[in-house]
Amino acid sequence: MGSVYFRAMVWIQFVICALLVILVGSRLSFYGDVIAEKSGLGRVWIGAVLIGAATSLPEMATGLSAVILIKAPNLAVGGIVGSCLFNLVILALIDLIYRKRPLLSSVTKGQMLSAALSVIMMGMAAFALVLSQWVTVPGLLGMQLPSWVILLIYLVGFRLIMVHERGEFRSEDTYLHLSASQAYWTFALLSLVMIGLSVWLAYLGEGISKVTGWDTCFVGALFLAVVTSLPELVVSFTAVKLGAADLAVGNVFGSNAFNVAILAFYDLAFKGPFWSKLSLLHLLGLTSAMTITGVTFMAMVYPRKRFVVGVGWETPLILG
């Protein structure tokens, strides 16, 4: 009886948490769009940096727990790589659900910078992974050099995106009834709430996998991947409904770039040569994510209005 009650309570908490994520995520997208207008930074930068970081911090917390508490860097990196792959699937899911026009044909050219940045960072991570298997990679201030390079690429990349977006920004007057300070404070509060909900959601998802026995099979891994990516899915879909496709796509590419940057913090937290402890199997996930991002890049360069079933030509390739 107690076991049945425990399972029921876990599922009830999970449903409540998921509903709260949907509610908070929708408001996060709204105020992100307000900040994009008020700040002049544009939807690409806000989606990639602010919202991307807010929805990816839970993965960072979960991974740090794996690195520090159970000394399992491969588990942490596997979660990051899986998150990058599922984030890209989100683009295809939104394209299937929101059928007004193919998603990637609705974004500005600034998204190419975000996509390119995420590919460069994943490529650097793959290079570091291979290099560390053959040579001893030097360290500096608690991190190996590849981690410093990844952080540098991240900072420089988003600086370039900010400069580009400010040059392309066109003033709008959609949210005249809201002040800039109100938007900033509300977004900050919602981000903190979303981070807390996301960590809770991941914890509940792990609990459900254990009580159902899914943690011993592929279904459990897939379930956890979907659960931890629910914030990105909700925020991106809500942004598209607001007519802010750049905010949605920027969130996906920005989350992936931030995910790779998180590897540097795993390196800092791990006591020992981080990169040489990683399995080369992670290359499969990294190269897959890079390939899919390449497909989305082509879709932005060569957009088509429709495919056979009313979606972009890239959607079947991403889902395939």
Short description:
With 320 residues, the chain is mainly α. It is built from 11 helices and 2 strands. A two-stranded antiparallel ribbon has the order 1-2.
Secondary structure blueprint with pairings:
Layout: H1 2-39, H2 42-69, H3 73-97, H4 110-134, E1 139-140, E2 143-144, H5 145-168, H6 180-212, H7 218-228, H8 230-241, H9 245-269, H10 282-301, H11 314-319
Antiparallel strand pairs: 1-2
| Parts with pLDDT < 50 across at least 5 consecutive residues | none
Judged by helices, strands and strand pairing, the structural class is mainly alpha
CATH architectural category: Up-down Bundle
Helix coverage percent of residues?
A: over 70%
Radius of gyration: 20 Å
Question: What is the CATH class name?
Answer: Mainly Alpha
**Total number of strands:** 2
Distance between the termini: 43 Å
Count every helix, treating DSSP H or I runs of 4 or more residues as helices.
Answer: 11
Order of helices and strands: HHHHEEHHHHHHH
Order of adjacent strands in the largest pleated sheet: 1-2
CATH homologous superfamily grouping: NCX, central ion-binding region
The fold-level CATH name is A middle domain of Talin 1
Shape descriptor reads: globular
Number of domains: 1
pLDDT averaged over residues? 79
What kind of sheet is the major sheet? 2 strands, antiparallel
